[in-house]
């Protein structure tokens, strides 16, 4: 009989006892009107019983089993959840069980520890990470166990365990007998932050990571640069942030700051995927390197404005090769987001050099084909650095030959039709259109 089946049997037996009026003689406190803690997100399977144990925050501990390998991520997480599990300002129980008496509570009624057992320690989260876990707060004795194959399952289980606690007062809590088996439905559960249009201090980013961990989200999509500013400090091209950031001293992300974000994210089981969107959304790149961008023309002469990256110059690709090689080293995740959305063709149309380049390629007037040509070269060079990539749906729609592991990011309607087209071609897809604030 599995643990889940045991809990079903226990529930049926308990219900029978209640219905028949039998006295439930156990060493545990039975609360007539239990307040079931709500776990979010809802686990794949959860069974609870109105059998409660006392928990004293001052003496409770999280203990790893002897067979669990040493793991810095878990050591740090235990310290974090020792605090998060017993927050004194959480909402209190709306009632007090009549027989609570902390001064003379029998030891048999008190849960003293959560035993953690894990098979494999991993230091960096990844696309295929195993987040499965089980939690058992025993129905027959004050014992609690958390089981997981990997670091990431333990982190998700610790978050769930913290949500099972019911606050009685600042130092004392209740938890009821519970069995949980859980794993995520989706391997990618992400949140996008845009630190180019609105600079985000490091503290705000870490607070966002905390909020993501509470909701068991596992990907921070960092839209780190855009037209408005270039806060990413490049070691190879420092002028990019010196001239492109809102402020080159206060509104930038140094390599040290980026490492800090990646470390804080990993400590919470969250991947960091940086987005460097091209060929559009790149006006800030041109503050330091205007030759990267297309010079716009009016009446046959440059008008002093710039458009997307210039795909006709070989120097563009030499620069991007060096830039993405650095980005591949700075951001350790297997994936990088290459953007590719919302490219305006007006400036390309106005530039005679672009026109001549397109004639040479035999694609006169086909600016979708020009964009495809550019993006194809970018994805090919990124693959050299052993990186897979996300692209916005326009890249797929324009017929770029994508690698098998590519992920197409759908953000526009009609999303169902686009999702069908992408998956029908054998690619994985990421859906964001339902949460895009403009629609």
Automatic annotation (TrEMBL):
It holds the Pfam family Glycohydro_20b2. GO terms for molecular function: beta-N-acetylhexosaminidase activity. Belongs to the glycosyl hydrolase 20 family. The keyword Signal applies. This is beta-N-acetylhexosaminidase. GO terms for biological process: carbohydrate metabolic process; ganglioside catabolic process; glycosaminoglycan metabolic process. It is an enzyme of class 3 (hydrolase). The active site is at residue 342. Keywords: Glycoprotein, Glycosidase, Hydrolase, Signal. InterPro entries: Beta_hexosaminidase_sua/sub, GH, Glyco_hydro_20_cat, Hex-like_dom2, HEX_eukaryotic_N. Residues 39-164 form the Beta-hexosaminidase eukaryotic type N-terminal domain. It catalyses: Hydrolysis of terminal non-reducing N-acetyl-D-hexosamine residues in N-acetyl-beta-D-hexosaminides. Its EC number is 3.2.1.52.
């Amino acid at each position: 009989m599995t643990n889940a089946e045991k809990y079903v049997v226990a529930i049926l037996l308990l219900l029978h006892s209640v219905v028949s009026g039998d006295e439930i003689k156990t060493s545990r406190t039975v609360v007539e009107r239990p307040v079931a803690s709500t776990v979010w997100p809802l686990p794949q399977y959860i069974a609870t019983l109105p059998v409660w144990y006392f928990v004293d925050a001052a003496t409770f501990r999280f203990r790893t089993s002897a067979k669990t390998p040493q793991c810095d991520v878990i050591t740090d997480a235990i310290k974090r959840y020792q605090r998060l599990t017993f927050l004194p300002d959480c909402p209190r129980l709306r009632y007090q069980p009549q027989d609570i008496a902390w001064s003379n509570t029998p030891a048999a009624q008190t849960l003293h520890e959560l035993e953690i057992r894990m098979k494999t320690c991993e230091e960096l989260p990844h696309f295929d990470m195993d987040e499965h876990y089980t939690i058992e707060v025993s129905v027959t004795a004050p014992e609690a166990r958390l089981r997981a194959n990997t670091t990431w399952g333990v982190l998700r289980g610790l978050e769930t365990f913290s949500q099972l606690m019911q606050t009685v007062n600042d130092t004392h809590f209740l938890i009821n007998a519970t069995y949980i088996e859980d794993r995520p439905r989706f391997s990618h559960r992400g949140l996008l932050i845009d630190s180019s249009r609105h600079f985000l201090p490091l503290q705000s980013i870490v607070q966002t990571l905390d909020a993501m961990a509470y909701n068991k989200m596992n990907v921070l999509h960092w839209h780190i640069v855009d037209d408005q500013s270039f806060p990413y400090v490049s070691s190879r091209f420092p002028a990019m942030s010196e001239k492109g950031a809102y402020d080159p001293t206060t509104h930038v992300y140094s390599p040290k700051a980026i490492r800090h974000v990646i470390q804080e994210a990993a400590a919470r089981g969250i991947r960091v995927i940086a987005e460097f969107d091209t060929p559009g959304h790149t006006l800030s790149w041109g503050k330091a390197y205007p030759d990267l961008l297309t010079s716009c023309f009016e009446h046959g002469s440059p008008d002093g404005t710039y458009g997307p990256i210039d795909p006709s110059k070989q120097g563009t690709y030499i620069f991007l090769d060096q830039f993405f090689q650095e980005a591949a080293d700075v951001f350790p995740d297997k994936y990088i987001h290459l953007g590719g959305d919302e490219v305006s063709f007006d400036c390309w149309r106005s530039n005679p050099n672009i026109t001549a380049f397109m004639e040479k390629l035999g694609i006169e007037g086909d600016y979708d084909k020009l964009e495809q040509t550019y993006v194809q070269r970018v994805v090919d060079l990124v693959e050299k650095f052993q990186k897979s990539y996300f692209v916005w749906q326009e890249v797929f729609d324009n017929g770029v030959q994508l690698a098998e592991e590519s992920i197409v990011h759908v953000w526009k309607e009609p999303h169902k039709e686009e999702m069908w087209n992408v998956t029908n071609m054998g690619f994985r897809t990421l859906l964001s259109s339902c949460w895009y604030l403009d629609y």
